[in-house]
Amino acid sequence: MRIPCFLVSAMVAALASSAPAQDWPNLPTAFQPANNYVDDFESYAGVVPTHMATNSLEVATSLPDPEGWCNIGQLAPPLSAASGSYCLEMGLIPGTTNYHYVRNGLVLGLDGTGVGADLWLRAKAIDHGDENELWDGVWVSTDGLTWTQAYGPWNEGSAWGDTVAMNLSSTGTSTAGQFYLLFAQQDNFPYGYLDGIGIDDINVDTNAPPPPFANLPAVFVPAGSYFEDFEALGGVVPAHMAVNETNALTNMPDPDAWCNIGQHAPAITAASGSYCLEMAVNPAAVTPHQVRNGLVIGLDGSGVSADLWLDFMYREYLESSDAWDGVYLSDDGVTWVLAFQLWSGTSSWVQQVKTNLTNIGVNLSGQFYVLFAEEGGSPYNVSDGIGVDDISINTTPPPPPFATLPTAFVPAAGYSDDFESYAGVPPAHFGINSVDSLSGLPDPLGWCNVGQLAPAITTTSGIYCLEMGLVPGTTSYHNVRNGLVVGLNGAGAYELNLDFQAIDHGEETQTWDGVWVSDDGVSWVQAYGPWTPLLTSWQPVSVGDLMTAGANTSGDFYLLFAQEDNFPYGYLDGIGVDDINIVDPGPPGPALSVTGLVAGGVATIQVDYATPGGTVRHGYSLVGGGPTSTPFGDLLLSPPYKELPAMTASPAGVASMTSPVPPGAAGVSVWMHALDIGSLTFSNGLAEVIG
């Protein structure tokens, strides 16, 4: 059958119009060997070679854009290059004011046949203000249609510098044969003016980058009682330590990195003595850029059966948040696990809270490494950096969060406290805590005051209340943790409903804010919190039943009012508490239940909350659930009903009995009710079906 030419033409046109536009229509026609491929664009002298193809497309239409700028010299000499006179420039044409989105892409044809290893890409790059867009970065494809990203988005410096080493073979796209390598950029301003990415000195080879911290110590010292203040070293790096000073992008040694324990210079400031660990860019560097510092300490936990705890002194000088900041552990020097992030410090030396190193997933029973790491781009003590001193690793755990506990316990049910009767002398059932939030040690500037420090600034009644914050008037702002622990006994209580009056002077939310309960003084469960938002005037706070918080309150237990923050009480911070009340409404009344109500079986009938030692009368009806009027209220049984043998309640108020269920009673409906004679109170009624 012959198809008319016009029909063929129409079908071709229809198919062409429905096909999606190719993201990068211009592809190279030749391929260069991928291993040891080096390109600085100089040899082409502005002529695009056959193993390269340039693309400049208008983003909205994917059509060629005459104002796109994908230039290796064929459009104009570059504004600048990392070396020589040529490089790759991507953006809008320099000088245009027709700001709109363009997509630029230089595609290289490479051939990885026979390489037999991963291919790594490195280059020099410059960023003139590029924002993150869909296509920004480096991409790989085997067919020019499907692309996988090897790196992106662009995050380069405003001066020419090294890119990270990019593994082109880890994208899922094969580099073992011919493939395309794409450098892409998308944005809306001219190259060199608020926008644009420059690339130069491209290098592709099989050389994997070194690990982030290649220098490891050769010696390991005991971990159980390790202490280091760097003084005895005298500026010499010992064998159980290794210093890493590298470029953050390449992991190669960098002369501008500064990981100094005295081998470069005495410390600018130390927590003690003349030496400490300083990490940032060299204070004398004239071209600051991103560096990575790391001091690795070799330790041996052999024979240590207890947990290992780390603490140290440190100072922060405007340190920015970067990938490797913190303290890490490793048992092989390759895989590192974060133990502590170096943040929330100050420009003065502070004590770091103890950190348990044993529970983070690294084997510490033999030789292991502790890494103090910092990454940043500015000089130490100028606008960046972390200082570390007085490192301690031992088996001494930190003090409990609230170490001072009461020595006496008072009944919880009916407890009422307005703090007046003590006249500023804390009673034995109070434990008062004011500790530094980091170290857990007593803080003389903490303010947990029930009158022993001063009369209250404001109360709801009298002249005393609980005040928690920093000492009023101090300007030494730092985080302090306050806690009043009350010793209570909940024996015999049915509910312990807590309410009190509170005032908020500007409290921010912190970990320990609120009301807590504990049955051992070690493990605490939160019954209420955090404090915010509360009013700046006194207002009632209802916590609810403390018995439902999760701690055992049937005997002696602890009730904690806690506050943590960094400003003086009554000035931008602090929580006040007054007029504490704990109410027990008493037993809820007799509660009837039945279990095992199965034909041929034995049922258990039970009444809880009966009068201790009293009599409980009860019965059933096969007709209905009443009500039947009695002098004591409605009996929820319809006549005729049958009374079962009376039960006697235990001292705990529990009355129960067992009764056989007739074998042929399956499916029979039965209604049950009980009366507590001691209180002349009916229980709940039951409507059951025998199983």
Total number of distinct structural domains: 4
Instruction: Count every helix, treating DSSP H or I runs of 4 or more residues as helices.
Output: 1
Label the overall shape.
elongated
Structural class assignment: mainly beta
Radius of gyration: 38 Å
Summarize the biggest pleated sheet: 7 strands, antiparallel
Mean pLDDT across all residues, rounded?
Answer: 92
Percentage beta strand: 35-45%
- CATH overall fold name of the largest domain: Jelly Rolls
Quickly name the level 1 CATH class of the largest domain.
Mainly Beta
Q: Count of DSSP E strands?
A: 48
Known CATH architecture of the largest domain = Sandwich
Give the N-terminus to C-terminus distance in angstroms.
81 Å
Low-confidence stretches: 1-20
**What percent of residues adopt helix (DSSP H or I)?**
under 10%
Summarize the model shown.
By secondary structure, the protein is an all-beta fold.
Care to describe what's here?
The chain is an all-beta fold and 691 residues long. It has 4 domains: 182 residues, Sandwich (Jelly Rolls), CATH 2.60.120.200; 174 residues, Jelly Rolls, CATH 2.60.120.260; 174 residues, Sandwich (Jelly Rolls), CATH 2.60.120.200; 99 residues, Immunoglobulin-like (Sandwich), CATH 2.60.40. Helices cover 2% and strands 39% of the residues. It is built from 1 helix and 48 strands. Strands 2, 4, 5, 7, 10, 11 and 13 form a 7-stranded antiparallel sheet that branches. A hairpin with a 6-residue loop joins strand 8 and strand 9. The longest helix is centred in the N-terminal third of the chain and has 14 residues. It is elongated, with a radius of gyration of 38 Å. The N terminus is likely disordered.
